[in-house]
Design brief:
The chain is built from 15 helices and 39 strands. The protein has 736 residues and is of the alpha+beta class. Strands 6, 7, 8, 9, 11, 12, 14, 15, 19 and 20 form a 10-stranded antiparallel β-sheet that branches. Helix 7 runs parallel beside helix 8 and helix 11 packs parallel to helix 13. The longest helix has 19 residues. The structure holds (2R,3S,4R,5S)-2-(hydroxymethyl)piperidine-3,4,5-triol (DGJ). (2R,3S,4R,5S)-2-(hydroxymethyl)piperidine-3,4,5-triol binds next to loops.
């Protein structure tokens, strides 16, 4: 619910458990007056401390610098006296910077709004509202609208800004346009960020906030394996289930920044948006620039509740695909099975064995086009290699379909190999700085899709293949990051627009793709999980989580990913051992359990599996069919984290009505003298009697148990020891 109290000059955004307030200050600035657990309908303008003094000794008629350097701001600007991190920096045509926004007007409207060219949260059967607070800088001739979206059922506030050059003949230059910012007093807060590398994405890092600036960034042209557009600010005593937590996540797939600055008066400024480094945007008179949306989630019940709010927001209000909550076809992907070394015969032999074992789709990965037999060529030449695929793609797809399997295919549309016909014809289509030899990565360059003709070529190359056969799934990959930024499309005063224009072109291409092929199941991917971000969810319901398919490595990767994203979105497959990323050997059963908490599928040569392992596949698929719905739609609970306790991992998906739940338990380290573990289950109904079964265990040794939710929560379920390393168990809990 959004309201404006004229007397208190305060906007209130009320969600079920939080209140967010913006107060118009005496001098017309927008002050951030409150964000946290619900408060009453009172005059809270005192929270903006306008009458207190910092640097200046004058209390009431304070000088501007003193006020701005002290005031908790809603969209701090650069160059006029707030010396903390700014969220907006604009230069006029003469090169002077300085933005001073004063309140002008507001609008409250029902429903959500789209943002031209960018993903945006939308309404689906709930009540939502948008608040637009309009501010102006008359000197610069700009109007800046601060936009806030809320859904009645969620403790989330989704922000972005609209910047319009409203008057004059001259352009202005935006140097920094962040999407969200708010200030609050530090309260011994900690900060959580997600860090990683290739094959080690999104590991959780928690640390106390110190003085000065700290945060996460990407300058890689994409979200990245290394840092993630997410920060959580939380009370240092907060844990999974208690305490105040503020989470921020960015609905964008390019360079980002998310910072916390603790400054002189022990206040925190938290900002998130497009990374201003190497960014600028020329705004001609009459033009508007839209920032991407940043999501702010507040939880007063710890980290887990914050995660659940993000999950519900993304499942219900960001993912558009018809697959968002639906069962996905169980696929088998040939990447780890064959790498580049395959032909029609090999793929059909995999498909034949797969169909006997209840697998539903074959995905042909990298290497089917041009003359690609390693990663050194052919990107851009999206023409079927008929030496490998004898009889062509149509033949292969129809043979796969005859076996009762769907067919999916891999692309890397944004790339160009120097050894390709495309590069030989259009060397200038690769991103590069004139006279500087562009740096290679995975032996490839990146196409300048900010150029219309290049974007069209790349899109058509994909679409043409999809039009040529019955292809029901696409894996859209991206295996290098952007550097040597230059485009013949852009004049020098617009070169700073390149990175953002690149993301806009990517979004345009994927929008076209899902419009032309509305039933396509699209999976995004970037050398594993470097493009696992909410921006991509607007186009694809699932994203490949990581190239590390080892079940134990995946515990940390999937746990970190679950901090923000629902299990329904996590691309997860069972692969062979020793694992190709780390050499570990784990039981096939455990690999299945870990993949079950994702989209589920296989990435192995099924024709080479031992009978003992292959025979487990139909049963694993049966488990996916039995529990998949609960996993995709349920509330997620992190129960124990191997990365913290170094012994075991445990998590649960519980039905929204608390009638049933599926718990996954993985014993990572085994010790002698191991006792039965009592796993405490938070999140069910205290007064309900539940029946607990171990669906995959010997029933005599693990008989059914009955207990109330209260006992489950405080005493726990007894989980017996299994012999050997890396053993897993499923525990099914159902209302008795
Ligand atoms: C990186 C992906 O993450 C892998 O799954 C695979 O598709 C390779 N690229 C193919 O080059």
């Amino acid at each position: 619910m959004i309201t404006f109290n004229k007397e208190f000059k305060t906007f209130r955004i009320d969600t079920p458990n939080s209140t967010y307030c913006i107060t118009i200050s005496e001098k017309g600035y927008l002050a951030h007056s409150y964000y946290g657990s619900k408060i009453g309908n009172d005059d809270i303008s005192y929270l903006t401390r306008q009458m207190e003094y910092g640097f200046s000794s004058s209390e009431v008629f304070r000088e501007k610098h003193s006020l701005l350097d002290f005031l908790p701001q809603e969209l701090p600007t650069d160059g006029v006296g707030d010396f903390r991190e700014s969220a907006l920096s604009i230069y006029n045509n003469n090169g002077n910077n300085g933005v001073e926004l004063k309140y002008k007007d507001y609008k409250i409207s029902e429903g959500t709004q789209t943002i031209p060219g960018l993903p945006a949260v939308f309404d689906r059967n709930s009540k939502s509202q948008v608040l637009e607070i309009i501010t102006t800088d008359e000197v610069l001739g700009i109007e800046v609208s601060l936009m806030y979206t809320v859904f009645e059922e969620l403790d989330a506030v989704i922000r972005y800004t609209k910047i319009t050059n409203t008057k004059g003949k001259n352009p202005v230059y935006i140097k920094k346009a962040l999407s969200a910012s708010f200030d609050m007093d530090d309260n011994n807060y900690d900060m959580i960020t997600l860090h990683g590398s290739w094959a080690r994405e999104r590991h959780i890092d928690r640390h106390p906030i110190h003085m000065g600036k700290q945060g996460v960034v990407s300058m890689r042209g994409e979200t990245s394996h290394q840092e993630h557009p997410f920060i959580a600010i939380l009370e240092n005593k907060a844990d999974e289930n208690t305490g105040s937590v503020y989470g921020l996540n960015f609905i964008y797939s390019g360079n980002f920044v998310a910072d916390v600055q603790k400054s002189q008066f022990n206040s925190l400024r938290i900002v998130m948006g497009i990374n201003p480094e190497n960014f600028s945007w020329k705004l001609n008179p009459g033009e508007t620039f839209y920032t991407p949306q940043a999501v702010l989630v507040y939880s007063n019940q710890g980290i887990n509740k914050m995660s659940q709010t993000f999950h519900d927001l993304y499942r219900n209000h960001l993912i558009r695909s018809e697959y968002r909550l639906k069962e996905r076809p169980v696929l088998i992907n040939n990447w780890e099975a064959t790498y580049f070394n395959f032909d029609t015969e090999k793929l059909l032999s995999i498909a034949k064995e797969a169909s006997k074992n209840k697998i539903e789709m074959l995905v042909m990965d990298d290497g089917w086009f041009g003359h690609r037999s390693s990663d050194d060529s052919s990107l851009g030449d999206w023409i079927v290699n008929e030496n490998k695929l004898k009889g062509g793609l149509k033949y292969l797809v129809s043979e796969v379909n005859k076996l009762g399997l769907k067919f999916g295919i891999w692309f890397e549309p944004e790339m160009i190999s120097p050894d390709s016909d495309l590069y030989r014809t259009h060397p200038d289509w690769a991103i590069q700085i004139p006279e500087r030899e562009p740096g290679m990565s995975r032996q490839q360059l990146v196409l300048d899709i900010t150029r219309k003709e290049v974007e069209e070529y790349a899109y058509e190359a994909v679409a043409k293949i999809l039009r040529s056969a019955n292809i029901e799934y696409v894996k859209w990959d991206m295996n290098r990051q952007l550097a040597d930024i230059g485009s013949i499309n852009l004049p020098s005063d617009q070169m700073g627009e390149f990175y953002h224009r690149y993301v806009l072109a990517l979004y345009r291409m994927q929008e076209k793709l899902i419009t032309e092929f509305p039933n396509l199941l699209l999976e995004n991917c970037s050398g594993g999980g470097a493009r696992f971000d909410p921006g991509m969810f607007f186009y694809s319901p699932q994203i490949w989580c990581s190239d590390d398919t080892d079940a134990i490595e995946r515990l940390s990767i999937q746990e970190g990913t679950s901090i923000i994203y629902p299990l329904s979105t996590m691309g997860a497959h069972v692969s062979v051992c020793p694992n190709h990323a780390c050499g570990r050997v784990t039981p096939f059963k455990t690999r299945g359990y870990v993949a079950l908490s994702g989209t589920f599928g296989y990435e192995l040569d099924i024709t080479k599996l031992s009978d003992e392992e292959r025979n487990q596949i139909p049963h694993q698929i049966e488990l996916y069919k039995r529990y998949g719905d609960l996993i995709r739609t349920g509330d997620y609970y992190r129960i124990a984290s191997y990365s913290q306790n170094n012994e075991y991992d445990c998590w649960m998906s519980a039905a929204k009505d608390k009638s049933k739940a599926i718990v996954t338990f993985i014993q990572v380290m085994n010790h002698p003298n191991y006792k039965t573990r009592f796993i405490k289950i938070n999140g069910l109904d205290d007064n309900t009697l539940y029946k607990i079964t171990f669906p995959d265990e010997n029933q005599e040794q693990n008989p059914e148990i009955k207990m109330t939710g209260l006992t489950l929560r405080n005493a726990g379920i007894p989980v017996k020891r299994d012999w050997g390393d890396f053993q897993g168990k499923l525990i099914y809990i159902e209302k008795f």
